[in-house]
Amino acid sequence: MKIGCPKEIKPQEFRVGMTPNAAGEAVSHGHGVLIETKAGLGAGFTDEDYIAAGAEIVDTADEIFKRAEMIVKVKEPQPAERKRLREGQLLFTYLHLAPDPEQTRDLLDSGVTAIAYETVTDDRGGLPLLAPMSEVAGRLAPQMGAWTLQKANGGRGVLMGGVPGVGPARVLVIGGGVVGTHAARIAAGMGADVTVLDRSLPRLRYLDDVFGNVFNTGYSSAGLLAEHLAGADMVVGAVLIPGAAAPKLVTRAQLSTMKPGAALVDVAIDQGGCFETSKPTTHENPIYDVDGIMHYCVANMPGAVARTSTIALGNATMPYMLALADKGWRQACADDPHLLDGLNSHAGQLTYYAVGKALGIDVISPQLALKQ
Predict the structure, then answer these.
(1) Domain range annotation of the chain
(2) What Å distances lie between residue 312 and 43, 123, 363, CA to CA?
């Protein structure tokens, strides 16, 4: 199979869909690998690194999309890229379709078969291709929030760990999953007073058993959330409903109850965000002010640490990429129902229920799509 990896064109996106190691593995399996020139530079990989792995360097994205049977990316295809997709081609990348009707419609119109990293599952109920970026984003969130809290950026001017005689920042993490756990660990490591809210009692027990007194936990209710919002210097939104739009957990009206200059860091922004006032931002202009509350809502946070993120993502996606290339998408998905969970569209039809529900689009089952 011809596997193509174009350079990412989303603003300030420095990751790349394939590492030289992944390219080398694909070549060793007998596949052709096409890499757009300079695609890996943002993550520290040169064209020469890919050539040494056996890949072919291609001058333009047009040629990649024209020649490749499978496109491997990081971020959702941008409008210019979606115009190049075609029926019979396989797209393997993050999609986050639920809050993005325009992208969804373009993918359906193209007829492409699209498998989304973020909806591939595993036998433990996890999301193995989302997890590495959730780990990175979770660890970045307190770092970015601490920067947002600086007075020069419009924040409260509060130091995360405080100093002798001055208390630390109070950090609220909404959601105790992968993102929330990593965010809480890092924030606590920076010396902050951290509380994690979640609605899963088993998860709260797990966090309490594993992390003990590193941070506090609480069962998330409207009342407890409101109480903690009023006292927080930073709030990290870390709630995920796989493949679906994120729930809006903090309303605009509640901003008036918060401390002026407090920071909201919305890690769920790829799925529409979990604060009512969230809107996607970029690394170039990452923060904005609503009613005196500073919002950090960068939609590709892991792109800030592109080398770490690219290697971590490549480690996770490579076995699935090889299965798709070795067997073809139908056989690979038939053999692995967890990979089939990643199928979001095929031949102009939507195949992921949560996206269809969010956007009001009819859906066929992925099992039916396998037979088409």
Answers:
(1) 2-119+306-371, 131-299
(2) 12, 20, 32
